[in-house]
Design goal:
single chain; 495 residues; alpha+beta; FAD/NAD(P)-binding domain; Glutaredoxin; 3 domains; 8-stranded mixed beta sheet; 5-stranded mixed beta sheet; 12 helices; 22 strands; 30% helix; 26% strand; globular
């Protein structure tokens, strides 16, 4: 298979992209300068929308493909409770999420990476470890990359496309000259993956404890293991100190539930929160994805999920373009779509962090009074759950949106929830659009004309008289009553 895409960075984002491209028959090469996968838990949650998209990688109901291996390796959280001292301020249930995956799946990043690497191996792709990109040269028709291997030898590689999934200190981002605009939060934070006894809430319930000194967040991980996160006063040190078990216990006793005992730490770390993002995700033949394009507060646990969804968005577009099925301008939609999502996640995470770390006593009192009122409204808690789970992500202003007639929902740019018993769009070996319409000779003619772009099997309309064209990533491209408008749309994609 000709190598058409070089992926730099083999974390969850890079491996998701490599797997999606390989699924569609695109030749990929994926490198990472580290010697192996992470052994740390790091990003902890896989959200509903990410699990839905992972399901496109295997047959529905399969126990060895799709999202099933991740679910089997993870632990399901069904809700989040907000507290101030012993007072419960409100509860957000994940059961209201409109998805088959109506929960938060806690799974250490080390496990997520293991499963993705095993998936890649099953596709015949090996991550090239101890391999670093030392120089990049972009040209109108491709990218030349100098690779340094573990033994010190260098290789010059030329590929039509390159994707930087190489994290917050991205070599690719520096090479394309993309500014990483934003700021660093003015407080230090600690993280503890630890065993704990005496947790008073259900094991399926995460808890957020607001205290006058700051916040303590507790995520159960199963088998008596928990992730604890909290803020600390800012120091002038170059990096926050790693906390001790005794320090985490003291802070938990002060801010969190009483009567807990912490023991057997798996990972203790200090960190600072950065909120930064590039303006453009595409730079000619090079793209940025994941932390190379955006980093933000861990509030909401959406960083890795947002990056993996960058990969899902880019993969089907790259596949259609590399295979000559779609025109290059299809790739121009990647940056505006995913940059808008990055802006939303950045702002939401900053708001959650700001609310949780209020220092003014009056502001804290008002927050604690308002929370029960707001979290007592089902509409509010449903919106919070859908936002956190990322099923609320849509592309309302996408340049890929086609006609959208009044009264037809979901509208162009909106997610079409997976339909039970139906393969998801894009689940086949080609990144095909799916057509929901009443069968007719005209529909058959459209399918024949665009056989390379549209799945051959027409699906039932979502509403009588309506026609929906759904993208390979499950978002609506057209919602109309006019088949000719759909044909014109597909003509434009094909170029």
């Amino acid at each position: 298979m000709t190598q058409q895409v070089l992926i730099i960075g083999a974390g969850p984002v890079g491996m998701t992209l490599a797997s999606e491209l390989a699924h569609y028959g695109v030749g990929v090469r994926i490198i990472d300068k580290s010697a192996g996968r992470t052994d740390k838990s790091k990003a902890l949650v896989l959200w509903s929308r990410t699990l839905e998209l992972l399901d496109r990688g295997g047959p529905p109901g399969s126990t060895s493909h799709g999202a099933a291996p991740f679910v089997a390796a993870g632990f399901k959280l069904e809700g989040v409770t907000f507290l101030a001292g012993d007072a419960v301020l409100g509860h957000v249930s994940m059961r209201s999420i409109p998805s088959a995956y109506n929960y938060a799946l806690t799974i250490p990043q080390s496990e997520t990476e293991r499963l993705l690497e095993e998936r890649l191996a099953g596709q015949g792709i090996a991550v090239e470890r101890d391999t670093e990109a030392t120089a990049l040269t972009l040209a109108p028709d491709g990218v030349t990359t100098i690779l340094r291997h573990a033994d010190g030898t260098e290789e010059t590689l030329r590929t039509p496309w390159l994707v930087g999934c190489d994290g917050a200190h991205s070599t690719v981002r520096h090479a394309v000259g993309a500014a990483f605009a934003g700021e660093t939060n003015d407080s230090d934070w600690f993280l503890a993956d630890i065993h704990m006894t005496g947790y008073p809430r259900p094991e399926t319930d995460a808890s957020i404890h607001w205290h006058r000194d700051g916040v303590l967040i507790i995520f159960p991980m199963g088998a008596g293991r928990y992730r604890l996160i909290g803020d600390l006063p800012h120091t002038d040190a170059a990096a926050p100190a790693t906390p001790t078990l005794e320090q985490v216990q003291a802070l938990t006793d002060r801010r969190g539930p009483q009567g807990t005992k912490l023991l057997d730490p798996v990972w203790l770390a200090g960190f600072r929160i950065n909120g930064r993002k590039v303006a453009a995700y595409r730079h000619g033949r090079a793209f940025l994805a994941g932390d190379a394009a955006h980093i933000h507060s861990p509030a909401g646990g959406q960083g890795m999920n947002t990056g993996m969804q960058d990969a899902f968005n880019l993969a089907w577009k790259l596949a259609l373009v590399t295979q000559g099925t779609a025109a290059d301008h299809l790739l121009d939609s990647y940056s505006p779509e995913r940059s808008a999502v990055g802006d939303q996640v950045l702002k939401a995470a900053a708001r959650l962090t700001s609310v949780a770390t209020l220092r003014n006593p009056l502001a804290q009192t008002l927050r604690n009074l308002a929370a029960p009122l707001l979290l007592g409204l089902p509409a509010v808690t449903h919106e919070v759950a859908e936002t956190m789970s990322e099923v609320a992500i849509h592309y309302p202003d996408s340049p890929l949106n086609g006609p959208s007639d009044h009264g037809l929902r979901p509208a162009a740019g909106e997610r079409l929830p997976p339909i039970a018993g139906e393969p998801q769009p894009g689940a086949g070996t080609m990144p095909c659009f799916a057509l929901h319409a009443a069968a007719s000779p005209a529909v058959a003619g459209l399918l024949g004309r665009h056989a390379a772009l549209v799945d051959a099997e027409v699906r039932a309309p979502l509403k009588e008289g309506g026609i929906w064209l759904v993208r390979p990533d499950g978002y609506v491209a057209c919602a109309t009553r006019n088949l000719a408008a759909v044909a014109a749309y597909l003509d434009g994609i094909a170029g």
